[in-house]
Automatic annotation (TrEMBL):
Limits of the Tyrosine-protein phosphatase domain: 95-252
SMART domains on file: DSPc
Keywords: Carbohydrate metabolism, Hydrolase, Plastid, Protein phosphatase, Transit peptide
Gene Ontology MF terms in the entry: carbohydrate phosphatase activity; phosphoprotein phosphatase activity
Species of origin: Brassica campestris (Field mustard)
Record-linked PROSITE patterns: TYR_PHOSPHATASE_2 (PS50056), TYR_PHOSPHATASE_DUAL (PS50054)
Entries under InterPro entries matching the protein: AMPK1_CBM, DSP_laforin-like, Dual-sp_phosphatase_cat-dom, Ig-like_fold, Ig_E-set, Prot-tyrosine_phosphatase-like, Starch-Glucan_Phosphatase, Tyr_Pase_dom
Location within or outside the cell: Plastid
Protein name: Dual specificity protein phosphatase 4
Span of domain Tyrosine specific protein phosphatases: 172-230
One GO cellular component, as annotated: chloroplast
Pfam families: AMPK1_CBM, DSPc
Chief location bin: plastid
Length: 378
């Protein structure tokens, strides 16, 4: 069966600015203290209480001050990207929350000793969603953690990487990631520990999707349970869209962007399905005098911005948004299916705030998870 994770991603060059940041936090234990917000956003500060005597800072020789500064920077990036003020203190050690007796959402492991702590509470699968830049940012030695886990026969460490603060990458990778998680739970049983860096974005989203697709919950029922156990900010739209993608056959359509040449040297685009942290070049047709890009996209609305000779701008001849909360105006493109078709009706129903899966839809999702190719282990 076709799997979104197996679809090729274009070759991309790094981009500087506008969101899409990749970082890495780790472990801790916490209390959640709500504070007032002037902008009506959810503002939550996590006061971490460490139960770990050994942190990645101590192992790598990084000073506590450096760790604190990195935690501050990561928290600022997370707040900006997720629209909720969430503070993560990496220097205070690993933290986690039991969402169900068999499912834990938490922050990343920092040292091999964290494996021992998880074994003591019955964890059989450690499911890591971090990318290498996340680990490098906080100096986490993932190799030593993986090597230590392999010395035991009663616990397995698995990596399935999702880009931090990137809702589309989350949507794209959820099918294969949850498939790998599903197979691991079937194989290992026991308690599963799902973690990203802070345990506030990617990990709760993956856990929530697993509860929705596999464990029989309605989406908002699972969300309510998750939020009662751990304050976090999973992207619900990414989960809805990933669900629809599978049930409508992972369909994509080709869109074309064009921009009239005015003597430009380079024209690139950012956003779309690659996030604000990447860019794709457009090609100039000297015969027509147009820069163009063909891009295959799944259904949805995608914002983007042009980078012309290094300057960010939007094209006023294409649909564009009003200024967002950061004052940026972006172009956008809508990719839609025929609303009168069966798939169109399915998308409309499952795009609601609290979609409920039909029994045959849940069975189709399970079948997909069973047959989808697993992500290669790192």
């Amino acid at each position: 069966m076709n799997c979104l994770q197996n679809l090729p991603r274009s070759s991309l060059s790094p981009l500087y600015g506008f969101g899409g940041n990749q970082r890495v936090p780790s472990s801790l234990k916490m209390m959640m203290l709500p504070i007032k917000a002037n902008d009506l956003k959810l503002r939550i500060v996590f006061q971490a209480v460490s139960d770990s005597k050994s942190t990645s800072a101590e192992v790598s020789g990084v000073s506590n001050k450096e760790e604190e500064e990195k935690s501050d920077e990561y928290s600022q990036d997370m707040t900006q990207a997720m629209g909720a003020v969430l503070t993560y203190r990496h220097e205070l050690g690993m933290n986690y929350s039991f969402v169900r007796p068999d499912l834990i959402v938490g922050s990343c492991l920092q040292t091999p000793e964290d494996i021992d702590k998880l074994r003591k509470i019955g964890v059989k699968t450690i499911f890591c969603l971090q990318q290498d830049p996340d680990l490098e940012y906080f100096g986490v030695d993932i190799s030593s953690i993986q090597a230590y886990a392999k010395t035991f026969t009663d616990i397995q460490h698995i990596r399935c990487q999702i880009r931090d603060f990137d809702a589309f990458d989350l949507r794209l990778r959820l099918p294969a990631v949850v498939s790998t998680l599903y197979k691991a739970v079937q194989r290992n049983g026991g308690v599963t520990y799902v973690h990203c860096t802070a345990g506030m974005g990617r990990a709760p989203a993956v856990a929530l999707t697993y509860m929705f697709w596999v464990q029989g919950y309605k989406l908002m029922e699972a969300h309510k349970l998750l939020m009662s156990k751990r304050t976090c900010s999973p992207n619900l739209d990414a989960i809805r869209n990933a669900t629809i993608d599978i049930l409508t056959g992972l369909k994509k359509k080709i869109i074309t962007l064009t921009l009239k040449d005015k003597g430009f040297s380079t024209v690139e685009v950012s956003g779309l399905d690659i996030g604000w942290g990447q860019r794709i070049p457009l090609t100039l047709d000297k015969g027509t005098g147009l820069w163009s890009l063909d891009r295959e996209l799944p259904e949805g609305q995608f914002e983007y911005k042009y980078i012309i000779d290094g300057e960010w701008t939007h094209n006023e001849l294409e649909p564009f948004t009003g200024p967002n909360k950061d004052g940026h105006t972006n172009n956008y493109v809508k990719v839609v299916d025929d609303p009168t078709s069966v798939d169109g009706a399915t998308r409309e129903r499952l795009s609601s705030e609290d979609p409920e899966l039909l029994e045959e839809e849940r069975l189709k999702l399970i079948q997909f998870l069973e047959t989808c190719s697993e992500q290669p282990q790192v």
